[in-house]
Amino acid sequence: MNTQTKTAARGSDSYTTHLIHRAGFADERDFLLRVVQPGLVGLIDGTISSLAPIFAAAITSSSHTAFIVGLGVALGAGVSMGWSEAGSDTGEETGRGSAAVRGSITGAMTVLGSIFHTLPFLISDVQKALIVAGIVVAIELFVIAWIRYRFLGIPIGSSLVFVTVGGVISLAIGVGLGVSG
After folding, report:
1. pLDDT by residue (tens digit) across 56-84?
2. What total number of domains does the chain contain?
């Protein structure tokens, strides 16, 4: 395919597809495997796994303690998830790209997934912080559901159910531990 034909073919592509090609990915599937999937794994893990320790700390102690626990969880989980992704697949056999790049994406998104609902615990009143954090978690879960819908074609309703169930289970563990402590 010559340059003029490629340019004409791109003219019919969506803006997103055009950006994906300009970023050096062969197509949207390549982008999905190398960026979206590792990022989504990190975002889901960071959001869901951090709920239990953060909310348990808030209920048993204080906003300050919940904030410190949340920061520790976010950073520790980011390292763990990034390291796990980088070490699980070189990318050579699966075509998923550089292990270091995928690991970095997964680690960064894991931190991002847990840091937003950690920040409300900068509010000294733990009850207000819990309410704000709950709202932030709801937004995070919606964003995850939308990403799953947009890139994986999973209906938004079933995606919301999927991520909400995971979040509720983790939150219930944290609340259960918090009230028993």
Report:
1. 999 999 999 999 999 999 999 999 999 99
2. 1
